Every structure is written in structure tokens, then in C-alpha cells.
Amino acid sequence: MTTERLNEVLRIIRDFIRTEAVPLEIEFIRRPFRDLLPRLSDKREKVKALGLWTPHLRETLGGLGLPLAQFARVSEELGRTPLGHYLFNCQAPDVGNMEILIEHASAAQKETFLMPLVRGEARSCFAMTEPELPGSNPTWLATSAVKDGGDYILSGHKWFASAADGSAFAIVMAVTNPEAQRPHHRASLIIVPTDTPGFRRLRNIPVMGDAGEDYSSHAEILFENCRVPAVEPAR
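Above: the chain sequence. Below: its structure as C-alpha cells.
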């Protein structure tokens, strides 16, 4: 994107955030998040009409095709309000999960899991952090995914899975190859639909006294013999 076009996009986003998003902040603070969903959905449709939906994605997926440095400028404007990234469908953890699925998912997985995220029809969460081990170290994981025929069976305990409440699926980091010599080769990312038997969202964890709900929450999750199909990664 040219510098001139980027500056115009930033101006439009800045005006949108000021007039459409910031006025909702008082309700965001005072009311349950789900109460805001109808109004947030209307705002998201306005973002789509402006042609600014999913600005981080390439143009073939309906995004702006921005390189990282330009997306950082956009993200700076969106970050002026806690609602900004959500309204433009580039909120964590979906923004990262989209990138994972684009690079590594099979064609069928992209159709089932990626495209609903791109269209804003579903949300996802990312489950790595564990209460028993340092959550910031992905080489120390207790959650396992054991191959059983054509499936993986997941067992483990995760917490602070952002936005798990109401999400359609989780991307779960679990140990699949505990004997691997290199620590980073021991774990894999497994897609787990949240309606899978054995997937249990135990609670939303209070942060500064507020457990939150829906997108605005962080969950504790238990995997109890949670069985999902094993799919070869995209090549």
C-alpha cells in the first residue's frame, strides 16, 4: 500500500474509532459483553462496508494485504479503544489463529475453521498456558495428545485461554512426541472444536475481580480423554 493510501486509511480508521467505538466504552465497562454484541455486530458491518475488514489478511482473503510495519500503524489506531481490534476482526487470539491456519491447515480445515473466522461468523481461542507449569515456556507442557488409530486423545489442564467462552474451536498446544530430542519438536498444535466430548470450560477466571464473558474473558479448560481426528498438516 502506498504511503498516501495508508495515511488515508489511518484517517478513516481514526474517525471511525472516535465516532463509532469510543462512545460504546462506557457500556463496555458497565454492561455484560453479550449485551453489546448486537451493536458491535452493526459496527462490524460498517467496517466491512468501508473495505477495512481483516486488515492483516492478504487481499485474496478480503483483507488489505498490509505488511507488518503498516499493520502496526493500523493497530496503533485500533488500540485507542479496547473494542477497536474486535470491530475490525483482527483481535487476538483470532488474528494469530488465522495466520496459523493459513500457513499450516489442510484445505478442509481452512474451509471449516479458517473461513468462518475470516468472515467474522465464529471466534476461536488458543490454549497453551497451564496452571501446573510455566505457561510462558512452550517446551514445558503436561497436556498430551496421544495417537489412537485415526484420532488424537487429549488430556490436560489449561488456563487463561483468552476468549474461550463462546468460541467455536480451540487451537491447543499439546505434547505429541515426548521422546523427541529437541524440546520444540515434542509438541503440536491440535484443532479442537469446543463441542467435542471431553472439552470442558471450567470457568472464566477473574481478572482484577471481573470474570467477564464471551470474547472479553479468559477461561480455565480441562481436556478429559478428548478425542479429535488426526489430520496431516498442509504441505
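The first strand starts at residue 124 and ends at 127.
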